[in-house]
Specification:
The chain is of the alpha+beta class and 322 residues long. Helix content is 32%, strand content 28%. It has two domains: 235 residues, BirA Bifunctional Protein, domain 2, CATH 3.30.930.10; 77 residues, 2-Layer Sandwich (Enolase-like, domain 1). The two termini are 44 Å apart.
């Protein structure tokens, strides 16, 4: 097993690195990495239904999708991510217990009384400190998880809480849990750097100390994967299962309602009512366009209805579409 301590904090690069290692190498892998502020949805989720899109956009938080299932998680520099890639035989690959065990052993060695929860999360004192997910590719398994050490939990709660509009879909839904930072569970003084160092040393020993660094050609390949797939609108939003979205809100003296349907993130049906008027003419403007911030912003700014939207309410109007 090789050990990789990723130096980049770009979530797209690290998610691409996992896929590259899973599909293009034969070695078993242990990797740890951190990422700048990001929300990362599971492969089979409707990401817009899982997050506060306006808050995420306003805070310039990276929005990403991974290749494993499960629910949406939040990353910041107070969170450490770990990944295992293992070889096995088809039909006997999924093994959360095996992959979570060394992480629990490490946490116990740090003074955290940790255990595996019913949804394969890692718990401590009845609260979640780690989410975990797995993905099979042929005879190889990717297992990865988070470790909340000193994350900003107020941002986490805000980003993962929707506050308007209704989505109807068959996507996998996140199971919300009460979370806690590991730092608050350790009785002695502990910094993030020291905790991360302890984790690196533990995994170095666990992987038999075989440190591996990506070559320049591998870095180029991983960046290509990140650019073409993991940072693309088609993967992040377009991969969402088909959904319907409805929202009603009041703008000045008018009640407005929106209803739309999508396929692969593209709007296939659209209806808007503004007071007693049904804006049938605008439906064609939205049809066959991505359900995206760019689409809504361009149409709201250029269509004749923009004259009815006060400039200081334009953002309210635009984000009501999400």
């Amino acid at each position: 097993m090789i050990f990789i301590n990723s130096k980049t904090t770009d979530a797209y690069f690290n998610l691409a690195a996992e896929e590259f290692l899973l599909k293009n190498t034969d070695e078993e892998v242990c990797m740890i990495w951190q990422g700048r502020d990001a929300v990362v949805a599971g492969k089979h989720q409707n990401i817009l239904a899982e997050i506060n899109f306006r808050q995420a956009t306003g805070k310039k938080i990276t929005i990403a999708r991974r290749i494993t299932g499960g629910g949406t998680v939040y990353h910041d520099m107070g969170n450490i991510n770990f990944s295992f890639i293992r070889n096995g035989e088809p039909g006997n690959m999924i093994n959360f217990e095996k992959n979570i065990a060394p992480v629990i052993d490490f946490l116990n060695s740090e003074g955290v009384n940790a255990n595996r929860g019913p949804k394969n999360e890692i718990m401590a004192g009845g609260r979640k400190i780690s989410g975990n997910a797995e993905h099979i590719h042929k005879k190889r398994l990717l297992h990865h998880g988070t470790l909340l050490f000193s994350s900003d939990l107020s941002i986490l709660e805000g980003i993962l809480s929707r506050n308007s509009g209704d989505y109807a879909d068959r996507a996998v839904k996140s199971a919300r849990s009460t979370v806690v930072n590991i730092k608050d569970l350790i009785s002695r003084e502990m910094t993030l750097d020291r905790f991360a160092g302890d984790l690196r040393n533990y995994f170095l020993d666990y992987s038999k100390g075989r440190i591996y660094e990506f070559s320049s050609s591998e870095i180029k390949t991983i960046r290509d994967i990140a650019g073409k797939k993991f940072s693309s609108w088609e993967w992040i939003f377009g991969w969402s299962p088909d959904y319907e979205f409805r929202n009603s809100f009041r703008l000045e003296a008018a009640d407005i309602s929106i209803a739309l349907k999508t396929h692969r993130g593209i709007i296939t049906e659209f209806n808007m009512k503004w007071g007693t008027n049904e804006y049938k003419d605008i439906s064609g403007t939205f049809l066959n366009k991505p359900h995206s911030l760019q689409t809504v912003s361009e149409i709201a700014g250029s269509h004749a209805m923009a004259g009815f939207i006060p400039p200081d309410r334009m953002d309210d109007f635009i984000f009501s579409f999400f």
